Amino acid sequence: MSETEPKAKKKRKASVVVNESWCKGCRICVEFCPKQVFEMHGLKAVVRNESACILCYQCEMLCPDFAIAVNEIKDNDRAV
After folding, report:
1. Could you give the C-alpha distances from 17 to 1, 6, 8, 10, 22, in angstroms and in order?
2. In which domain, by residue range, is 29 found?
3. Fewest CB atoms within 10 Å of the CB: 14, 48, 55, 66?
């Protein structure tokens, strides 16, 4: 690769968690997620496709119950 060629962007990884005890099933995350990361199971939102998350944080910002947490996973982060 020459110096003038742009480097390929590495896909950022996300951790998306729904606190089911706080979720009241309003469907806002399902409706506003641009990558269909969420789906409804009964009256609760659940993460369907975490790898599709683009870290836009729309779900976290729009959730009226603060039931969603989105975090970027850095390459040097390890699960414990």
Report:
1. 38, 34, 28, 22, 12
2. 20-73
3. 66
